[in-house]
Amino acid sequence: MSYQDYECVIGLEIHAQLKTQSKMFSADSTQFEAADNAHTSIVSVGMPGALPTPNRLGVELAIKTGLALGCTIRERSVFARKNYFYPDLPKGYQISQYDEPLCENGRVIYLLDGAKKEVRIVRAHLEEDAGKSVHIGDASLINFNRSGIPLLEVVSAPDMRSPREAAQYAKSLRQILRYIGVCDGNLEEGSMRCDCNISVRKKGETRLGTKVEIKNINSFRFVEKALEYEFERQVTLLHSGQAIVQETRLWDPDKNRTFSMRIKEDADDYRYFPDPDLLPLVVSSSYIEGLKKQLPELPLERFERFQKQYGLPSYDAEILTEEKEIADYFERAVVVCGNPKAVSNWMMTDLMRLLNDQKLDINQCPISSESLGELVQLIDSGTISGKIGKTLINEMWDTGRRPKQIVEEKGLVQISDEKVIEGIIDAVLKDHSHAVAEYRSGKTKSFGFLVGQIMKACKGQANPQKVNELLKKKLES
Amino acid sequence: MDREIVKKVAHLARLELSESELNAITNKLTLVLQHFEAISQVNTEGVIPLVTPVDIEYRFREDVVEGDISVDEVMQNAPSRQGNLFKVPPVI
Amino acid sequence: MLDTGTTLSDVIRLIKERVVKVSEVTQFYLERATRLNPSINAFITVNDAVLDQAQKMDDQLPNQEQWEKQPLWGVPLGIKDMFCTKGLRTTAASRMLAQFVPPYDATVVSRLKQAGALILGKLNQDEFAMGSSTETSYFGQCRNPWHLEYVPGGSSGGSAAAVAASMCPAALGTDTGGSIRQPAHFCGIVGIKPTYGRVSRFGIVAFASSLDQAGPMTKTVEDAARILEVISGLDIKDQTTSSEKVPSWSNNLNPNVRGLRVGVLQEFMDKSSLNIDVARALEEVEAFLRKEGASLVPISLPLVKHGVSVYYLIASSEASSNLARYDGVRYGHRAQFDHFSGVTLERFYSRNRSEGFGAEVKSRIMLGTYCLSAGYYDAYYKKASQVRRLLRDDFLKAFQQCDVILSPVSTTPAFRLGERLHDPLQMYLNDICTVSVNLAGLCGISVPVTLSSQGLPIGVQFIGKPFDEQSLFNCGFALEKAFAFYRRFKNELPRL
Question: Of C41, C23, C219, C57, nearest to C134 (Cα)?
Fold first, then answer.
């Protein structure tokens, strides 16, 4: 049997928590940390007589997402009730959207091994989250803090052909959502969850195989692993002449496998109908246009512009545009110094290392973008040497002070005066006549040693180019 | 409308019906649905279904956190609880 | 000072003029409620704290400015048990909620309290308001004060009976398909179902969200106007409330019907299908209106004959979903389980719900679940919602030719207890004259005019344009002046 003979067809349904303070249909908090059932209300626990009130920001963030994904925004969409019984579902139905969703027909274009890949978005609709159940011995305990949190369900077309493609798509979607500020993409806190639909067929076959759904995966690594497992499982079944059962499965991260959720035959008769407690959601085209204008440049466009405008290699451009805040930081620093390549180098090496070491994100960086730009400027103008720059950035990190200030106070200004440098060189040559002799007898390695001694003598402040130049002249005269 | 459909619907609605209830409801639903069937004669081609019968201006709630009832009030009617969590049979 | 003829407006005046104390008023109604309840069963719960609350008010009579803000100051009201009342058990007349104590007030209840009203108690009704006779209550059937062997109507039967028997000066009801107007008609009182969106539904146990409206049930039209103007108006907690301005209906009452165009709904005036006393009452009303200078315009709305079907399909569908929250997890009835091991979720739900709901509720949930389920949605729920639009549009068209529409409230006066319990279709068809008003979102009022040959009250219905409650109050006021039914409470009902 060869897996190469088969291909998989994957579509993802990603639930993204929209970044609101209060819930989608009630005013209780969405904050992650809370005591048991502390973030609940009459509405979110489904008391008798409770009625939903739609959150303006929730709708706005959903529309923004739709626009960023190139979707058509329905000017009249409908909230529907999805009816099913589960202890974490307080009303016995979930408010969602069914046949008239807010956003339809979009796409995500992303990079896969340097090539552009497009995944179509079928729809993106608003809905509310359910509560959470914890299993203890012979009972389960229900917490409704999550109940009513706004979710945008983004449904892709079955356009992906490998688990890696799927994981990359999910990452790109997360990147877009974070770029436009609608979702914090925090997987550990459940801000994003992924359901995967996968079927397998022989290569060349155009019909779709039987679809299996893997529900509620909360990491991209697990998306890839679960799909890989599922691909192999299904190919093995097909190969041995067995049929794939259409079912819902769950990923067990401890055992690295998917397992079947027992499913009742009626499970998907959700009896959707328009929620009579909520009016049809009507948004004007001018309102939609207004939101469109608020959208920032999206990651892929920015990635391409960074290469074109700043002449950055694609590797640099990719890293610098990974997050909007990093890209913003970069561009602000470039405005100060006008040297994109240098800013890029400083960010990709020293700054990222410092941030990683302290587990800080760019917003918490003690070195402002202006300071970094100033640092580059100091080097470019010859005021300080690159070597001094390396020490300086650590000091800037520790103190949060501007580089000019530190340079002035500590007298770190580069020595470019040839007479001064010559004086230092003369003194060093005098102390190391042995090395001078060696050099002159053909052992050119001594040159490096002498440069080192000179830099040491001037505490690194001498202009290294000039040191090289003058030393050579002296030795060869 | 037959008993099998009624059983299926009872399951969907999470109602446990005794034999006599099952019979009574089957008869009742058969009777009333037969009567209600008459609406199929109304020509509704192209008619948009009506939900809210009166025109009402759309209103949003602004995204501001506000409390209404306390955790104690949320929990006070719980038939079974553990701390401030609701207790039910195992969900898995 | 206080007797069975006392109206809500009388009570307000007597308190204001310091003729009676708040506690005396409360004492009077409390005494009647307690004494009569064993025979009428209008109350499910009497508010133990009400007399204390009343006594505290005795010495703090408001000044003129406060009166305007608190127009119901010191008035003890009866509240149908569909309204959540903070700290006071709210059952919806169901075993499911027999122990439920809401931690909050429905918007209309808090508006009544803010207006100075007291809550005397919670009134009997059909379980979850599903019924037309108050015979499906888990707390026992309620009886008609005019004749104890007859039903008070429903679903707000307890509210109608309590007002008619002067167990409270006025009450709140809810009306999904006639549940205020029909019991008002059966008990000889005034009941108005306001325009959909007029009154907040927040905190009212939901039956059918696109049809439910709350409204007052009182002895006189003025009483009804006074309460409705307190509870009406935009509520940010209910997206389906309208921002339409709330007029001062009680100050604008005008009994002059000269020039008024009264549509007469032909489909409901067919003498052969009307009880002879009901038909006679309608004729008298028509004659009166004509005499007073109103013009009677025959109106035909062929779709109203489908009203009952459309209503039951839509109401049951919505109810099946609205009642899904009653699962015994967070509140409500829970069946006895020795322990949870081996109890599947499905059994847990089914047992809680089957024990908690009565037969009528179960059959409506079944009907609604069926109508929404895969394969039947288009033929039932969707089809009904389409016919609903056509019906609504027909009504709005008819209102180009007339200002209000006159019709019966029901084809008969009150019927005997148990008479229709085993004839579901007959019970449902009973609602034919009222359901269309809810489907079309219009307002409708039931005004008592006379007694039947058996001594049972008969009212008539006026149907109004959206947000034109004033015309209904005016028509009712005109009839009230002419027929003076309210006097019968003083003269014919003190026997209770």
Answer: C41
Residue ending a domain, among A410, A437, A462, is A410
A53 lies in the same domain as A172: yes
Q: What's the gap in Å between the CA of B76 and the closest CA on chain A?
A: 12
B76 located within any domain? no
Tell me the chain C residues in contact with residue B73 when contact means C-beta distances shorter than 8 Å: 103-104
Q: What number does CATH give the domain C8-261+465-491?
A: 3.90.1300.10
pLDDT band per the 50, 70, 90 thresholds, residue A265: very low
- Out of A142, A271, A278, name the one closest to residue C239 (CB): A278
**Domain around B25:** 3-38
The CATH number linked to B16 is 1.10.20
pLDDT attached to residue A459:
80
Q: Residue A338 and residue A309: Cα distance in Å, rounded?
A: 12
Query: Measured between CA atoms, how close is C451 to chain A, in angstroms?
Result: 37
User: What stretches of A25-172 adopt beta strand conformation (E)?
Assistant: 72-73, 76-77, 79-83, 93-97, 103-112, 115-128, 132-136, 139-143, 150-156
Max CA pair span of chain B = 57
- The pLDDT tens digits of the residues spanning A448-457 come to 888 888 988 8
Please give the Cα distance from C80 to C157 (Å, whole number). Answer: 9
Nearest by Cα to A193 from A214, A162, A179, A175: A214
User: CB-based contacts of C2: which residues, under 8 Å, 6+ apart?
Assistant: C11, C14, C20, C24, C25, C28
B57 in contact with chain C, both atoms CB, cutoff 8 A:
yes
Cα–Cα distance for residue pair A112/A169, rounded to 1 Å = 9
Q: Which of C101, C386, C390, C425 to mutate to test the interface with B (most CBs of B within 10 A)?
A: C386
Does A282 share its domain with A342?
Answer: no
Which residues of chain B make contact with A140, given a CB cutoff of 8 A?
A: 87-92
**A91 interfacial to chain C (CB closer than 8 Å):** yes
Residue A264 predicted with pLDDT over 60: no
Q: Is residue A265 exposed (0-12), middle (13-18) or buried (19+ Cβ within 10 Å)?
A: exposed
Q: Is there a contact between C310 and C432 (Cβ–Cβ < 8 Å)?
A: no
- Taking the C-alpha atoms of residue C312 and residue C177, their distance in angstroms, rounded to an integer, is 9
Is residue B67 assigned to a domain?
A: no
What mean pLDDT is reported for chain C?
A: 96
Match 């759309």 to its residue by tokens.
Answer: B58
Q: Which two tokens stand for residue A324?
A: 């909007």
Task: Outline where A123-259 has alpha helix (H).
Answer: 163-179, 220-239
Structural contact between residues A15 and A193, judged by C-beta atoms closer than 8 angstroms:
yes
> Is B77 inside a domain boundary?
no
Q: Give the torsion through C-alpha atoms of A298, A299, A302, A308, to 10 deg.
A: -140
**Span A378-408, pLDDT tens digits:** 999 888 888 889 989 999 999 999 999 998 8
Burial class (CB in 10 A: 0-12, 13-18, 19+), A464: middle
Q: Measure CA A5 to chain center.
A: 34
* Contact in structure between A466 and A458 (CB atoms under 8 Å): no
Neighbours of A364 (CB within 10 A): 9
Cα A371 to chain center, whole Å? 25
To the nearest whole angstrom, how far is the Cα of B54 from the nearest Cα of chain A?
10
Residue B19 resides in a domain:
yes
